[in-house]
Predict the structure.
Amino acid sequence: MQFQRVEQLRAHEYVAEQIRRQIALGLISSGEALPPERELAKVFGVGRATVQHALRLLEADRLVETRRGRNGGTFVIGPADDEVGTDYLLVELRRNRGRIEEALAYRRVVEPAVTEAAAMGRTEHELGTIREACQQATAAENDTEFMTHDTRFHLAIAEASHNRFFYEAVEKLRLVLNGAFVVLPESSLWHQRSAAEHAAVLAAIEAQAGEAAREAMLTHVDHTHKSVTALLSTLSRRLNP
């Protein structure tokens, strides 16, 4: 028999992990202020001391910074937007290539099924959330904004599936793949194609057409799959000329 040691997270570690996950997903943008400590304590149902301890962990990981003064608060620190930061991200993608490729294959199976379930079971409120995220992604003025709303779009669809395992699967996929998505060449063509594919997915969900929703998401996932695979191949050639 093989067992793994159980590690019990303390309250402050749980709070830190929840915030860390939101940052990794891009749902909290670089430069954005976290809610005040009192509000975070209320949301998590813990004391302010627990929140303060959690924020210190995130500061140690260079994910947030505390600013003093009139406009102070705790702010998310984004990845370096320079050549050094980009090179670091590319090294991480090369190192994790196998994991990313497995995630792409898993995504091709899971997300179409999630979308079909969402189309058949979504509520009007959930449809409104999906529609709003779709519109915001289309209207995004830069790649960072697009990634934030794109992630929200896919997570909103997963939420509308009413299946916790589907949601957890999509969330985990985004955590693995968002780094690769960020590095894809930013272009108006890329955003236009994504907007058109999102619109097709949305239309099928609006119509509660399960099979059409599945096919629309499969088309979207396949295009992204090809783009990321091409990126990984290029990075591999650079590493092994």
